[in-house]
Automatic annotation (TrEMBL):
One of its GO terms (molecular function) is magnesium ion binding. It comes from the Eukaryota. Keywords: Lyase, Magnesium, Manganese, Metal-binding. GO terms for biological process: diterpenoid biosynthetic process. Residues 60-234 form the Terpene synthase N-terminal domain. The keyword Manganese applies. This is Terpene synthase, N-terminal domain. Gene3D superfamilies: Farnesyl Diphosphate Synthase, Terpene synthase, N-terminal domain. The keyword Metal-binding applies. Residues 287-457 form the Terpene synthase metal-binding domain. Its cofactor is Mn(2+); Mg(2+). Pfam families: Terpene_synth (PF01397), Terpene_synth_C (PF03936).
């Protein structure tokens, strides 16, 4: 799930590429048995005792995974799918008022359909910008529409100034007290505030204001659908959620809306089920890999890598020369950097050294392995690999560093207690406690604040120009979202029997009911 979640919503594109025999790099990558790992490393000390995480056995039965199947295949539903897709395309292009257009864009995206209508949505957003350029007159007194416009436009790369929210402040510079009665507006303001940038005090104030008053709302006084939306948002903001997980939740929620578009809803259901069918095929292929080799992975990995680096046969994916340069030195450097980070943590552990928070983070953003995952994601999501982009990526730019930070910090918040109990090194929470003498509660609040701050930096990074394009750019925040999903309530990776299992079942096993 983790890898798929990072690349979502580009799963259809990747799936089609992986089965495309005319795409040499992706074709070769999709054949896992082209490299056979030989048992050539013989000098393993059998007496070596390694610390164990003692993870519980997988709850996924091998035969069950291999049997995953769906009735919603591309072949069976292709004609119906394309007909409905064209109708939705016309719907997005239709003339409508700016607020109506914004709400339609929001619904399309939350239903998981943005990847299908990138051009149409881009044009629709530009249309909103053109229609509301006159001092935001159409939105001037409405908190919901102003907040929704701010969120959608920032999401699509328009730098909307924070000052548009000044109209909702009183003479003392605070948000007006009567806004507390506008739950719909508060909810929109709350979601918009997570698109804030560094040093945007008004957006920070909006987040505090909206969060406080949404928590203070008497749920019994709300309509059930609105109460559900508020609880969902307070559980985790939309900006931090995985696209596919959110789509599954929003399909059920949108079904209860009084002003829903039935065509859009039915197409979203069909799209979800057809993408699920593709995912099931991918999972079945993964389950077909030689599971017996997993237990021997430590002794085999060196042989595998050596074979990969030295081969001149069909798996030349990694050894080809792209535009006159060799990819292998880049792979060697990122692996060496990761191993150095592991070695530093091993030295800390065996010497009993307690790093400062800065020392820990500088090393941990590498040792969490996010940079190397994103490095490989670049190859998986890029048609035209360039030396300029590889040089840029290797230097770990801010957009990648922030993604790595989110994975590390959310992991620490969810797993550090268990990891310390089994003898691991101190994590960011304990480093802050050692630096400041703070309690664990205060340290957790501080690290959670770092998560918020990192997202603000990442938001700003999304506005920069890069020597690479989509979908790799979105792979960076999507890795952060994957981390938020896995570690929201604890160790959702090491102990996945709870919310992770529920997510996987809804994403991979159970189709959305269609009338």
């Amino acid at each position: 799930m983790a890898a798929q979640a990072i690349f979502s919503p580009f799963s259809n594109r990747l799936s089609s590429l992986s089965s495309n025999s005319h795409h040499p790099r992706i074709t070769n990558f999709a054949k896992p048995f082209l490299v056979r790992c030989l048992n050539s490393v013989q000098n393993i000390d059998s007496a070596t005792i390694r610390r164990s995480a003692n993870y519980v056995p997988s709850f996924w039965d091998y035969s069950f995974v291999k049997s995953l199947n769906s009735d919603y295949t591309e072949e069976k539903y292709a004609e119906r799918y394309e007909k409905m897709k064209e109708e939705v395309r016309c719907l997005i292009r239709a003339a409508m008022e700016p607020l109506e257009r914004l709400e339609l864009i929001d619904a399309v995206q939350r239903l998981g359909l943005r990847y299908q209508f990138e051009i149409e949505i881009k044009n629709a957003v530009q249309n909103v910008v053109n229609q509301t350029s006159d001092q935001d007159a159409l939105f001037h007194h409405d908190l919901h529409s102003t907040s929704l416009r701010f969120r959608i436009l920032r999401q699509h790369g328009f730098h909307v100034p924070q000052e548009i929210f000044d109209r909702f402040k009183d003479e003392s510079g605070h948000f007006k007290a009567d806004l507390c009665n506008d739950v719909k507006g508060l909810l929109s303001l709350y979601e918009a505030s997570f698109f804030g940038l560094e040093d945007e005090n008004t957006i920070d104030d909006a987040k505090v204001f909206a969060t406080k008053h949404l928590k203070d709302v008497n749920e019994a006084e709300l309509a059930p659908l609105m109460a559900r939306k508020v609880n969902h948002a307070l559980d985790m903001p939309l900006h931090w959620r995985l696209n596919r997980v959110e789509a599954r939740w929003f399909i059920d929620t949108y079904r209860e809306e009084t002003n829903k578009n039935l065509l859009l809803l039915e197409f979203a259901k069909l799209d979800f089920n057809m993408v699920q069918s593709i995912h099931q095929k991918e999972v079945r292929k993964l389950a077909g890999w030689d599971i017996n080799e997993i237990d021997r992975l430590p002794e085999n990995i060196k042989t595998c890598l050596l074979a990969l680096f030295n081969t001149t046969n069909e798996i030349g994916y990694w050894t080809i020369r792209e535009k006159g340069f060799n990819i292998i030195p880049y792979l060697s450097k990122v692996w060496a950097t990761l191993c150095k980070a592991y070695r530093k943590e091993a030295r800390w552990f065996h010497s009993g050294y307690k790093p400062t928070l800065k020392e820990y983070i500088d090393n941990a953003v590498v040792s969490i392995a996010a940079p190397i995952m994103l490095f490989y994601a670049y190859f998986l999501t890029t048609e035209n690999i360039s030396k300029e982009a590889l040089d840029y990526i290797y230097d770990l730019p801010s957009i990648m560093r922030c993604s790595s930070m989110l994975l590390r910090l959310t992991n620490d918040l969810g797993t550090s207690s268990d990891e310390l109990a089994r003898g691991d090194i101190v994590k960011s929470i304990q480093c802050y406690m050692n630096d400041t003498g703070a309690s664990e509660e205060i340290a957790r609040e501080y690290i959670n604040g770092l998560v918020h701050q990192t997202w603000k930096t990442l938001n700003k990074d999304m506005f920069r120009d890069y020597p690479f394009e989509e979908p790799f750019i979105s792979a960076c925040p999507n890795l952060g979202r994957t981390a938020q999903c896995f570690y929201q309530y604890g160790d959702g990776h090491g102990v996945p029997q709870h919310w992770t299992k529920d997510h996987l079942i809804s994403l991979l096993v159970k189709p959305v009911p269609i009338d």
